[in-house]
């Protein structure tokens, strides 16, 4: 990101071996042939760039600064991609860097696109000029220097680009530049092939003519004389609704109509709302706004399936208690349980008190419990109280990003539920920790089915190119449902930069998923759900015809409860007590379960009316019948005329006559699980809490051992499980993946041998001991005995490992205690709580994203500071008596359980070794603890007089 001063310095370079050339990115605006004029401008730009390289230029500045009343700027992305691809074709791209000097880019996505299509640097000169103007108008603090303002803007954009790259799993800007990881929505194939070569564009759309018309219209608007009293600039209304601005389907009319309808049970008001949303003939907001239903023989509406059955297909979206208030979250759960539908916890866990029915018979228990990469609040008790477990790989508004809860929304209540620290921002890491591949996903599906035998498991994906292939993998991974989430949405905690430009419309993703599943003979064994700003019964019918069986409502549900789309969710300042944790604002919450019930019934009745028109008596008969969809013939919108929906409406032939919808079940892979054998032997412990111990052999084909056992224990005894060490099982051999996953309190697993990946995943209070066999010839603390990603998302319990662990040890640990004798890269990644002791070597990138808990690392070579990621943590010596005592005690316990020679040596030479330990403490965690301690002191009688005075 270059400032205007940086650009001028580059221009002034006068060296023979480093030449900087500026090429003009403008075209003739005063023309009767906009497309021809823009094409000539692009050709002149490409030729000028080519000539500059031939003359030895090392940097080419593509500039639109010399615009005038007759010269309009070429859109900066088009100019960048055109030059980049032209130079690629001629083999000259590697000879010069491209710098974009433009007044157009201003948001994170703009810069990401420029990078993605070949820009090496950019100077958004208009953005810097606006910042200067804002300071002159006292919109920015007068104390801030212009240089500081520019630096702050650059830092914000850089963070945004890094976040976007991380969503895509890319580590370096060099890899992102020119990678074109985008899909074009609404650009015709000829235009894309010429200027954005290699980019996917599935539905056609506008071309050079329309782009030129828009560019000239904007240019003329800028130069025309404005009438007296007119706004200097158009507000736009991209994010917030503005009169005469960008069209939003959520606007004062639709919001007020819907809220009136659900509050007073007024079907006429709902009809007005539905008509306002469905009628997009003039201002198109969605792809489905151009769909129309093909005529067919109607049936009497009395013959159509009742609304009471249709509403059972509805779900509320995955919004966590944390992103939204407790009152709103519980209100949705009550409503959906009354209807027989399902509400979704989101990735924030759930209070166990909600599992008990209310005195009036209502239930606040969410039927769908989400298991996301953050693993917030995922315990065996949480999993055992679900009807469906949902793995969140992606999210519509934030694909690849996962959730992020700002620190100001992490109250004491939220922190307890998520096993974290009040006031500390919660980051949900990308979902690569235990889902590197479809095989890993299959393992997680298996884990979750063990955690609650008989439960359905769904996988949440985001609509994007290739999602159908992933959905096929999900079906093969034995999941029961796949959810295709559209790009719209982002309720509760989405930053504004994540609400747009992420993912694509669910219509595209759903259609691709249905087609791929049908072609591969997989559609009949998996249920398909979709969500993403579903608003009306018409939306539901469209989704059903494209292949969906279940339907999620998130934003719409919140609007029903009183939300007016203030877009303050991420700030926690919701006036209506919905998207906030502020106790005063929460008092304003006026929503009732009845409002959501009425909304869902209105939707279902609208669905019934359309079904009657299309001739369907049963909802299931409508699923996947895309032949009942067509594109509106008389398209009035000038930018929509080139759209081609044939890819969406395509219907492949079902192989072997299989159904276009779910008609069978996934195979039961738990039949031969070793836990059924364990349950028989453990009956005295489970039934009578008698001390029980026994020994079993184990092989690496025995996966997720003891998880079914843990489910049985918490269902019988609650989250507290059994008294410590009531049940002790000794295994000899090589354990398969997820050994001891979600292990309940009271169980001790002793493994004499070795273990594969994911040991102790989601540990929920149990104890796991891994011991090197007595006659092993190798040195334990120098050899790996357990695999990667141990204790992922552990909430409580303890683990003692007599040997080294692989990579990502204790990733997202939020409460467990672990002692290990060495580990690979990325130890304690994203950890939010608990205690880790490492009695040996560590790999690089230790403590990346660590925001809570503490780690003690033996640093004999004094090199640990070079291996630790210090972005969020500080290092200190172990000098406090409390730390020394705790560390000594943990090593003693490690010796007791494992007979570790390493532990014995450290304890025998304790006075020499304790000084070689380094304590790793997260910075924000330390600050939060200090604040909590200060708050406690203020409530004691020994409050210093100075604190009262000042």
Q: How far apart, in Å, are the first and last alpha carbons?
A: 45 Å
What is the helix content? 25-40%
Q: Taking Cα atoms only, what radius of gyration do you get, to the nearest Å?
A: 30 Å
Q: Which secondary-structure class do the elements indicate?
A: alpha/beta
Task: Give the helix tally.
Answer: 32
Protein architecture, described:
With 950 residues, the chain is α/β, with parallel strands linked by helices. The chain contains 32 helices and 28 strands. Helix 4 (108-116) links the parallel strand 5 (97-102) and strand 6. The chain is globular, with a radius of gyration of 30 Å.
Summarize the structure.
The protein is an alpha/beta fold and 950 residues long.
Topology:
Elements: H1 4-11, E1 19-24, E2 26-28, H2 34-54, E3 57-63, E4 71-73, H3 76-90, E5 97-102, H4 108-116, E6 121-124, H5 125-136, H6 146-167, H7 173-176, H8 189-195, H9 208-223, H10 252-264, H11 267-278, E7 291-293, H12 307-310, E8 314-318, H13 326-339, E9 342-344, E10 368-372, H14 380-384, E11 388-392, E12 404-405, H15 412-418, E13 426-427, H16 438-451, E14 456-462, H17 467-476, E15 481-485, H18 506-519, E16 527-531, H19 537-546, E17 550-553, H20 555-560, H21 583-586, H22 593-614, E18 629-631, H23 646-649, H24 674-681, H25 683-688, E19 692-698, H26 707-717, E20 727-735, E21 747-755, E22 764-771, E23 796-801, E24 814-820, E25 832-838, E26 852-858, H27 864-867, E27 873-877, H28 881-898, H29 901-908, H30 910-913, E28 917-922, H31 923-938, H32 945-949
Parallel strand pairs: 1-3, 3-5, 5-6, 8-9, 8-17, 10-11, 11-14, 14-15, 15-16, 16-17, 19-20, 20-21, 21-22, 22-23, 23-24, 24-25, 25-26
Antiparallel strand pairs: 2-4, 7-18, 12-13, 26-28, 27-28
Helix pairs in contact: 2-3, 2-9, 4-6, 10-11, 10-22, 13-22, 17-18, 19-22, 28-29
